[in-house]
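A.,

Following up on our hallway conversation. Structure tokens first:
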């Protein structure tokens, strides 16, 4: 089950996320952030 969160992100990063979204690799901003978070968590957990 997914849970809705609220986060605050620098405007510069939001613009980068929007540019990535325009390229069509991801479905939404949430998809991009979830993908990036998964990669980060894999790195810090040593998987």
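Then the amino acids I'd put at each of the 47 positions:
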């Amino acid at each position: 089950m997914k849970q809705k969160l609220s986060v605050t992100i620098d405007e510069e990063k939001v613009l980068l996320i929007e540019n990535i979204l325009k390229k069509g690799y991801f479905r939404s901003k949430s998809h991009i952030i979830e993908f990036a978070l998964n990669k980060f968590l894999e790195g810090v957990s040593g998987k």
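The two ends are 23 Å apart (CA to CA). Curious whether your intuition agrees with the design.

B.
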